């Protein structure tokens, strides 16, 4: 019996063919179903599967929540194993004295946040919009912007230490973690080896534990929204507010997204949001006022603004939250006009909403992409982007497709430009399994639309090349973004040498990072 067959037997079996096909897909597509797929329930099982698969010479692809769209964990050949970490979702240690939490890689951001809330704590990077499914391991492996990012940085900046297993079974523990009796909780002890595995797209090893920083929760919040006549005013406002770092979370939307994705809430979501608003409001009067505001303002206000930006400020007291918002408002009113704050109120009350945005407002297929630009490049990129979309308008109408865009500030110097592409097409089995049946039943269905899908793929490729010309960086590099192209030769040489040392047979997520 081969090592892998023995592992399969020991682990009560390889998952079914249907499961394997599902685990070999992401939000956008699939290439090949893996020969084997496992859902280990203990870290020891995870390590054993990694060692056995490597001994068999099979490619190893680790899946967290599976909610990315850059071929990140996708096998390209059948000679591969997918390891689904969703059952590795425990909190290993909550250390309130040293303000750290250590988790297994498969825990979702929402599950972690719900557990920490009971202690009045949070991770500085609270999680992605997709945090209902997205895992800590998957997110740390590819970097992300999310709740808390404006105040506290991207996912990488919340990491203290990482435990990794390499294909030959070597365990690596970073920072002050080690074999001594006192477990250290400090990342920057010598070279930043945690940083090596952050954003590695799973190409350098399998994360078995992640230690994150903790903060006390700020229970009070204040929100505001602003409308802008054009993109330049939105960008001016967002970059100026970002330099103050007073906001917990902010994001901008163009008209297409304001009217569609974000403004559309089905009855179930609205009810949950109402409950959330009630819970997060300091008293019933404020809650009632928020809910009335939501009902009145809703889509009408949003539908009228070419661009809108939404702000959430948190405080230990209502005064602190309001004072921070006053700074935002002074800047917002310089560049735009204030509108009803329904969107940020909903987002603050319910940061981890159902994954309905995996499809368009009318059940269209969806694939986003993004670029991280220095502020100095944003205007030139946006002009080229707008012209490109205008040139494609007739094609998009013919093939029932459209484009929207979302925007965020990353720290004070970087701007995230995130186009979202939609087209009418049939759903993949992936969507049927990831989304609530009741919600899917409420949406129109479309026949297969290969011409529409081809148009979207062309536009996605063109937009990535356009981003590249303007010096964009990317989160979620996966197997999509041209990370290795144009990087410093010394840096890429070093990375390739590290890959060869940790994974000499190139078994860890081959193709990831393009190295
Ligand atoms: C509706 C929706 C909203 C979204 N919102 C946001 C958002 O607000 N911000 C944002 O940045 N992104 C967002 N995304 C994109 C995506 O959800 C995030 O990138 C998220 O972090 C992916 O996490 P995951 O657990 O699903 O990772 P996966 O897709 O499962 O994996 C991502 C990568 O990590 C690797 N990996 C996973 N676990 C491990 C491990 N234990 N060891 C080594 N490698 C591992 C995988 O091999 C893969 O390369 C959104 C997606 C959707 C569908």
Oligomer: single chain
How many beta-strand runs?
A: 18
Mean pLDDT: 92
Hetero groups: flavin-adenine dinucleotide
Estimated share of beta-strand residues = 15-25%
What radius of gyration results from the CA coordinates?
A: 23 Å
- SSE class: alpha+beta
Overall form = globular
- Uncertain runs are none
Q: Alpha-carbon distance between the termini? A: 34 Å
Count of individual domains = 4
What does the largest sheet look like?
8 strands, antiparallel
What percent of the residues sit in helical stretches (DSSP H or I)?
25-40%
So what's the CATH class of the largest domain?
A: Alpha Beta
Individual helix count: 19
CATH architecture of the largest domain: 2-Layer Sandwich
CATH topology of the largest domain: Alpha-Beta Plaits
Outline the structure in words.
The protein has 515 residues and is of the alpha+beta class. The chain folds into 4 domains: 3-86, Uridine Diphospho-n-acetylenolpyruvylglucosamine Reductase, domain 2 (2-Layer Sandwich); 91-216, Uridine Diphospho-n-acetylenolpyruvylglucosamine Reductase, domain 3 (2-Layer Sandwich), CATH 3.30.465; 220-353, Alpha-Beta Plaits, CATH 3.30.70; 356-469, Alpha-Beta Plaits (2-Layer Sandwich), CATH 3.30.70. Helices cover 39% and strands 19% of the residues. It contains 19 helices and 18 strands. The protein has helices at residues 3-10, 17-23, 43-55, 109-117, 136-142, 149-152, 193-197, 231-242, 255-262, 267-280, 284-302, 318-335, 342-349, 375-391, 393-398, 429-434, 437-441, 450-469, 489-502; strands at residues 36-38, 59-63, 80-84, 91-95, 100-103, 121-122, 159-165, 171-173, 206-213, 215-216, 220-228, 249-254, 307-315, 337-339, 365-368, 371-374, 401-410, 414-423. The strands form 4 sheets. Strands 11, 12, 13, 14, 15, 16, 17 and 18 form an 8-stranded antiparallel beta sheet that branches. A hairpin with a 3-residue loop joins β17 and β18 (414-423). α8 packs antiparallel against α14 (375-391), α10 crosses α13 (342-349) and α11 packs across α13 (342-349). The protein is globular, with a radius of gyration of 23 Å. The structure holds flavin-adenine dinucleotide.
């Amino acid at each position: 019996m081969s090592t892998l067959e023995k592992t399969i037997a020991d682990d009560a079996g390889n998952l079914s063919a249907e499961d394997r096909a599902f685990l070999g897909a992401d939000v956008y597509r699939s290439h090949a179903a893996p020969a084997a797929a496992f859902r280990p329930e203990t870290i020891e099982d995870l390590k054993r599967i990694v060692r056995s698969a490597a001994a068999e010479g099979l490619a190893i692809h680790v899946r967290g929540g599976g909610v990315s769209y850059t071929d990140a964990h996708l096998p390209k050949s059948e000679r591969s194993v997918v390891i689904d970490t969703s059952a590795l979702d425990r909190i290993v240690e909550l250390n309130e004295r040293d303000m750290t939490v250590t988790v297994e890689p498969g825990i979702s951001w929402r599950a972690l946040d719900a557990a920490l809330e009971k202690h009045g704590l949070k991770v500085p990077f609270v999680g992605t919009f997709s945090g209902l499914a997205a895992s800590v391991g998957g997110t740390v492996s590819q970097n992300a912007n999310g709740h808390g990012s404006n105040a506290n940085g991207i996912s990488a900046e919340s990491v203290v230490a990482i435990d990794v297993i390499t294909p030959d079974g070597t365990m690596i523990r970073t920072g002050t973690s080690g074999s001594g009796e006192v477990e250290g909780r400090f990342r920057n002890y010598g070279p930043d080896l945690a940083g090596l595995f952050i954003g590695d797209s799973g190409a350098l090893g399998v994360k078995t534990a992640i230690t994150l920083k903790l903060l006390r929760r700020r229970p009070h919040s204040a929100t505001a929204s602003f409308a802008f006549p054009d993109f330049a005013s939105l960008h001016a406002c967002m970059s100026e507010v970002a330099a103050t770092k007073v906001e917990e979370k902010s994001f901008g939307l163009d008209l297409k997204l304001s009217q569609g994705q974000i403004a559309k809430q089905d009855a179930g979501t609205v009810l949950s949001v109402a409950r959330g608003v009630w819970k997060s409001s300091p008293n019933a009067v404020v809650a009632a006022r928020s809910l009335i505001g939501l009902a009145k303002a809703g889509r009408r206000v949003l539908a009228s603004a070419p661009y809108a930006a939404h702000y959430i400020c948190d405080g230990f007291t209502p005064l602190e939250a309001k004072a921070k918002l006053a700074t935002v408002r002074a800047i917002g009113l310089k560049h735009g006009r204030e509108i009803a704050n329904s969107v940020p109120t909903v987002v603050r009350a319910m940061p981890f909403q159902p994954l309905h945005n995996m499809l368009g407002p009318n059940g269209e297929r969806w694939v986003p992409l993004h670029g991280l630009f220095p502020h100095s490049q944003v205007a030139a990129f946006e002009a080229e982007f707008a012209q490109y979309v205008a040139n494609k308008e007739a094609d998009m109408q013919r093939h029932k497709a459209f484009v929207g865009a979302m925007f965020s500030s990353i720290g004070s110097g970087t701007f995230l430009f995130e186009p979202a592409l939609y087209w009418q097409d049939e759903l993949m089995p992936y969507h049927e399994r990831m989304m609530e049946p009741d919600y899917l039943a409420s949406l129109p269905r479309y026949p297969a639309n290969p011409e529409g899908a081809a148009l979207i793929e062309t536009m996605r490729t063109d937009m990535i090349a356009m981003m590249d010309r303007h010096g964009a960086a990317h989160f979620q590099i996966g197997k999509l973004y041209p990370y290795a192209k144009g990087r410093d030769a010394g840096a890429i040489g070093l990375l390739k040498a590290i890959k060869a040392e940790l994974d000499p047979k190139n078994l860890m997520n081959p193709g990831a990072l393009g190295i």
